[in-house]
Input
Amino acid sequence: MRIGTNPEKNNTAIRIENYHRVIVPVYIPNFEGYFEESFKVFQLCLESLLLTVHHKTRITIYNNNCHHDVKRYIDEKYNESKIIDQVFHSKENLGKINAILAASKGNLEPLITITDADVLFKQGWQNAVEELFCSFPEAGMVSPVPGSKAFSGYTANNWAYSLIKGALSFQDVIDPDALRKFDASLGNEKKLYSPIHLKKYLVLKNKRNGKEAVMGCGHFVATMRREVFDKGTNEPAFIKIQDGVEGKFIDLPNEKLGFLRLASKKNFAFHMGNTVESWMHEEFEILKTTTRNIEIDVVNLKKAIAMNSVSTSIGRFVVRLIANKTIKKYLFNYLGLSSDEAY
Output
């Protein structure tokens, strides 16, 4: 039997003071083989995140059935930090995407950063991505890590934007060493980036305000407008990793909604992989002596402006065109690469 009236019935409005949510799914089942140093990597990731976010940020950690020592560490950090306000513990590994969907659907912040548990953040990353959302109201996905080969991955709206509102040009890579570190972190025998990728990347300019961003981005760390989750798929993911699962639940919804996919020109985070190297500790020490991120005026975080479906179709046609090596080489030559550099 219920006695009395729940007082919350007279207090129905939910108000949040923060506007940026960071979601960190983590899966470290043991400390052997592939996972031997993963706990140390995750600690560097989380500590660097806590040192770099501003006060209008909240962090969600989703524990996908980690080792009990990892779980204990997560709980300790939750009890220590006001910024970490949510921790989910699952007794099964439900995969990265389901962890992200579960956390994003239950939160109200207009900006949601999704990050792997092996990312080392630099001071300034949050300012960089938030400023790009202000400079490009059409942006739906922004990464603090630029890449030289992301110009054709789910970037139909970018290409349409360049024809209607912006301009494209190849520019010098600001931090080629960061691209080398990313390449090394993947552990692939064949390098991702050739010499020209370490030298030049494709940059999109907003002709209205002169602001610039690198075309496209990856999703090991990226900030999304929450509309991408609100209006994206409502299905769960039945695949943990690979087989296009991130494309279906993150990349494609962003493109279908008419949003741009961008990255900062400077590098503000590193992908560490599953081993700890000396340079990571050196970068972490720098965090302690540099200025923390400062929150933006939320008024400047303008409502999303989507490209229409016709524009998206035009952009997809351009992406199909540049799949042709001859056309792509001619276009890249026109956009600033020399005949020897164009690829």
Q: What stands out?
A: The chain has a mean pLDDT of 92. Residues 38-52 form the longest helix (15 residues). The chain has twelve helices and twelve strands. The first strand starts at residue 20 and ends at 26.
